[in-house]
Design a protein that fits this description.
Pfam families: FCD, GntR. This protein is mostly helical and 223 residues long. Helices cover 66% and strands 4% of the residues. The longest helix is centred in the middle third of the chain and has 25 residues, at 70-94.
Length: 223
C-alpha cells in the first residue's frame, strides 16, 4: 500500500469514527507534520476525500470535515433504503455456510463494541456488515456505491446519531442472517428496509463539534 493510500485510509477512518468530527478543520501544515510528508501529498489526499464528499475544500479557507446537511443525510439514507433490499436476492443466491459463520462473527464483534460503549467502533462495524454483505451480490459497481453510502451514512451517524442508531433497537443483524440462512427472501428484504428506516429515524441533526484535535497524537503511526 502506497504512502498516499495509507494516509487516505487513516484520515477516512478518523472521520468515520468521529475522531475528526464534522466541521473540524484539516490544516495542510499540521497534517504534513503529523504524517511526515509534503503538503503536496496531503493536498492530494484531501482532494480525493473532497471528491467523495467526506471533506469540503473552500478557497482561501482550506479543508474541513464535511458536516452533512439535513437534505444530504436524508438522501444518503434514502438511497440505502432503496438499494440494499434489492441486492438481497443475489446475496442469497451466493450465500453459504462459510458466509453465515463469517457474518455471525461480525455480529459478535458488534455486540462487544456495544457492551464496551465504543460508539466509534460500533459505527464502523455496522457499516462494514452492510457493505461486506453488498459485495456478495456480485455487482461490483453497485457494491462499491453502497460502500460509499455506508461511509457517508457513518459520517451522518457520527455527527447526528446516537447509541440507538447502531444498537439492537434498530434490529439485530443476527436476525437478518437467520432469514438469509433459511432462504426467506421477502422477510429479509422487509427486515433490511425496516432496519435502515429505523436508523434514519434515529438521526437528530443537532450534533456539536468536539474540541481541538491533536493531529500528532491521532496520526502517530501510519503503518
Amino acid at each position: 500500500m502506497s504512502s498516499d493510500e495509507k494516509i487516505y485510509q487513516k484520515i477516512l477512518k478518523a472521520i468515520v469514527e468521529h475522531q475528526l468530527p464534522p466541521g473540524e478543520r484539516l490544516p495542510e501544515d499540521k497534517l504534513s507534520e503529523a504524517f511526515g510528508v509534503s503538503r503536496t501529498g496531503i493536498r492530494k489526499v484531501l482532494q480525493r476525500l473532497a471528491l467523495e464528499r467526506f471533506v469540503i475544500i473552500e478557497p482561501n479557507k482550506g479543508a474541513h470535515v464535511n458536516r452533512p446537511t439535513c437534505q444530504e443525510a436524508e438522501e444518503v439514507l434514502n438511497s440505502r433504503i432503496l438499494l440494499e433490499p434489492l441486492l438481497l436476492p443475489a446475496v442469497m443466491e451466493n450465500w453459504s455456510k462459510k458466509h453465515s459463520t463469517l457474518f455471525r462473527k461480525m455480529v459478535e464483534q458488534e455486540k462487544i463494541a456495544d457492551q464496551e460503549h465504543d460508539m466509534a467502533k460500533s459505527i464502523r462495524l455496522t457499516a462494514q456488515f452492510h457493505y461486506e454483505l453488498a459485495y456478495l451480490g456480485n455487482n461490483q459497481i453497485l457494491a462499491e456505491f453502497i460502500e460509499q453510502l455506508c461511509y457517508r451514512s457513518s459520517l451522518v451517524i457520527a455527527a447526528y446519531g446516537s447509541k440507538a442508531s447502531v444498537s439492537c433497537d434498530c434490529g439485530d443483524h443476527k436476525q437478518l442472517i437467520d432469514l438469509i440462512d433459511n432462504k426467506q427472501l421477502p422477510q429479509a428484504q422487509h427486515w433490511m428496509q425496516h432496519h435502515l428506516e429505523h436508523i434514519k429515524a434515529s438521526i437528530q441533526l443537532n450534533g456539536q463539534q468536539d474540541g481541538q484535535v491533536d493531529f500528532h497524537q491521532l496520526f502517530a503511526n501510519i503503518d
